[in-house]
Amino acid sequence: MPKIKLNLSNLSIPQKVSKAQQIVAALTAHGSFTAPSPSLATITGAANDLNTAFGEAQTARQTAKEKTSVQNQKEDALTALLNQIAAYVRV
Description:
Distance between the termini: 86 Å
Shape: rod-shaped
Low-confidence stretches: none
Radius of gyration: 26 Å
Mean pLDDT: 95
Largest sheet: none
Helix content: over 70%
Number of helices: 2
Strand content: under 5%
């Protein structure tokens, strides 16, 4: 029997989760696979865990962007104040 090629290496995380869901649905609908190993519940759980982690990572990236923007604004404010004090001292 030929080996099944999943081509997972080029898939994004959402695509991998979707692929896992499709495989679970197909095996569930097919009566010949009554006791797959790993179990379909294990695959479903892993897909759900990955999907949750992906969402959390996306949220963390957005939060980091927002915090970096605030940091840059605060840096600009301090730079402006230091330039003002330098101009004052020169006078």
